[in-house]
Amino acid sequence: MRLFQKNIVPILFIIICSIGFYYSGLSWMFFANDLLTRLARNSFLVISLIIPVLAGMGLNFGIVLGAMAGQFAAFITVVYNMTGIAGFFMACLMSIPFAILFGWLTGILFNKAKGKEMITGLILGFFANGLYQLVCLIFIGWIIPISNKSLLLPSGIGFVNTLDLKIWQYAIDKFYVFRLRGITTPVLKYLNNINFPVLTLIVVAFLCMCVYLLFRTKLGQDFRAVGQNRHIAEVAGIKVDKVRIIAVIFSTVLAAWGQLIFLQNIGNVQVYGSHVQVGTFAVAALLIGGASVSKATIGQALLGTVLFHALFIVSPLAGKNIMGSAQVGEYFRVFIAYGVIGIALALHAWQRLAKKKNE
Amino acid sequence: MSNGLLNKVGIPRLIISLFLAFLVAAAFSYGLPMGQIFSAMLTRFGMNSLLVLAMIPTIQAGAGPNFGLPFGIICGLIGATLAIEMDLRGFTALFFAIGISIPLGAFAGWLYGLLLNRVKGQEMTVGTYMGFSIVSVMCIFWLMAPYSSPEMIWPYGGDGLRVTVVLDGRMEQLLDRFLSFTINGMRVPTGLLLVTALCCILLWIFMRTRTGLAMSIVGSNPRFAEASGLNVNKYRLIASTLSCAMGAAGIVIYSQSYGFIQLYQAPLYMALYSVSAILIGGASLQRATITQALIGTFLFNGLLVIALPVANVAMDSDISEIMRVIISNGIILYALTRKEVGGDAR
After folding, report:
1. Which of A267, B234, B300, B310 is the 20 to 30 A CA-CA neighbour of B30?
2. pLDDT at B1
3. Within a domain: residue B173?
């Protein structure tokens, strides 16, 4: 019973997804394939949220800046035409300085707004998006010269809306695709048709392990200590502000890589749109996995990604079949994303207030 | 300039004012039609002022700027669409829309207030996401609701209401045109400004009644308020009720002046723009006055109005939307990182 209570959110979403799947009329095969692709391309972004949560900074809506760092690096590879898997890893490498800079600035800001990190991160995301547009739409071609004119708007200033990333699309997804063969068991034989993007999954698994190991190091213990109680940590000689900044930098760098993995699967970048919802969707996914504002595990991140994206796949068709309009499904899933975050935040604040009263 | 004066005016307000003055001078030197620009500024000021004034009750009651303003806004949109559905025109339509909006908005605000009382200290984050959720729920509502007025549904089938409903001939610019006159090519939207003034006076009077004063005390020192027998939660509830009711009426006034009702995702970020306007006016997350709201509305909207033509002439690109995003969110960030003066109880 306690297990049930503890995992009420994921259980609820498993039920919603099952109903949605039933009404969507999708085949298992298509569903599983799509889900696997989405798990591979989105889980990195969700995992990038874990460190700040454990460091007591709540859900880092500021990962939008990480996504921007990733996109800046992607633009550079496009401009210099770096192709294939080398191009992709170059992008990952080049995103690091951007992400460290952005993460550092975010961390400083968060330290000035302690206790209000989440709303600050959210607004910071919007604010940074304004600056990002200023750079991509006004500075590019004007202050920052770009030799390849086909990347620019007809006026010669600003990037076009969609930049093609064919040069390193599927760089790691299709590096080695594994398909099960020769399963003849009637129920399981569908598995034969599922494509496993092996390298991507290895990279994600490797990252999970790194995050897991990180929390066993001295730095990881510092994160936890700061997360549990800032004042006690301070007394214990931990440089709280510094540790918090490091946590945000980690998160931002991971988010930059996450965005690059996402982009290499999609194969193009919506210059003015790809990064905007990254924070909201990643946060919603993490919460659906059963995490809270102050507690998150890798398992919850992965489970949340699966459930949230299952909902993404089924909701338009389910909406069409139940309500007669695919648009309803679209709005429903946007509502779920916002609603889950809203309710989770409200519950957290509520519990904290109740705890304060009891003390 | 002495430090005291600088502190009093506030650095952001000073920067924005100077920037606005600079843009006005630039517009003047480019020979842009100043009459039109000034009348656009006045109109935008009148359009937005009630939505910004709606921030005052919650700030004063200690619940922070009302990021849940969409709760009120959607009620206003329901009122306005109902007025068209019933085929009303002119002032009947306007008053009907406002008359429906206010009680609906008050009810929504009351519910929202109940929530806010349970999440003290996190009102801004929770409010923002609850606002976002209600806007997406309403997206489904606009799709499914059984409206039948041909002006609002799609002409050739398709689901639900249009994304923007044109108010031409219904209540478009009714208040703007009421008693309006022109000096030096500048059209003054008298009716709109009168309504704004009326709202300010009513709010001013309310804030000086027993209830209003109690509300301010609750906000400035909740423990003292509790000790002197005031019911903190009750006054916070009143504040959010009032705020959302004002938001509901505010969006009707906004829509009539704009000439369109914007549905679906349009109200998503409206709360943020109102929050930033009042902060630009010099308010903090704990204290706000009517003057600050008015100054902020004028500065923020004035800047947006004038930036577009100036940027078009000066650099041949549309920078005003980008500027709006940067300024509005930048000012909120500034307010969030400011050390809270006066010892907040949280």
Report:
1. B300
2. 44
3. yes
